[in-house]
Task: structure prediction
Amino acid sequence: KVVQPGVVAAVSPVAPPCPGRIRHFKI
Amino acid sequence: APPAIGPAYRELNCDDPETEQAALVAVDYINKHLSRGYKHTLNQIDKVKVWPRRPMGEVFEMEIDTLETTCHALDPTPVVNCSVRQLTQHAVEGDCDFRVLKQDGQFHVLFAKCDSSPDSAEDVLKVCPDCPLLAPLNSTKVVHAAEAALRTFNAHSNGSYFQLVDVSRAQLVPLPVSTYVEFAVAATDCVAKEVTDPAKCNLLAEQQYGFCKATLTEKVGGEDVAVTCAVFQTQPVLPQPQPDTNAPTPVGASVVPAPPPAPMVVGPLVV
Result:
């Protein structure tokens, strides 16, 4: 019986939260 | 072993303290290198990538949004003590690209490029339908208002004759019909009361700047001028480390000596 080798899923890095916080107001 | 996957740069949160530290150094850099306009303060960090740098250190590649404050570039007040220009006053934002080197725990700006732009007229009028909008600084009315205000200030001054450095902001007010201007001035070696030919006056070697706010109100058969100027402490000429020679200075900016570490505002002198 032929089986596919196990594929280790790459751990995708969590996208960093950007843009950051607004300190005053956005125009 | 599988080849290394993923980006060559380090991903960092835009609100990470290390990112924020780099951003504050960057904003401080633009404020120290402005000679006209207003100081800016950090509003938002848009993007950050941290690249390894050989032989050592890391380079923070960043995009930053800033907001104009009410402190003129020549005002030695630390930016932390400056108010942000509010929407109703027609706010101005800055979009900046920076590369900041971190080495041995120290940040050093390698590259800076900023563009500033005022809020749209639609947005200002949305929050304040009666607020005056920013006017072009070279308009006849604006130039006339600044010159008339400075003439008034010098006429009432007992000290040095002041020259116009730049008009930094202006608004045309519909009712009463008036022009509001803000401008920077510099002291000369002439005495205000004795000047006959202003062209013969020279700026002081130890430069002394001031910042004025004035309103010129149009009246039937004339005009009224109200002007308030704050004269800053003299600013000694200090050598300053420069970034990469290929790095442009922020738009509309030129390099000026660093402000003194302990600023003190003299005045204001009110006319």
Q: What stands out?
A: Chain A touches chain B through 15 residues (CB under 8 Å). Residues 20 and 26 of chain A are 12 Å apart (CA to CA).
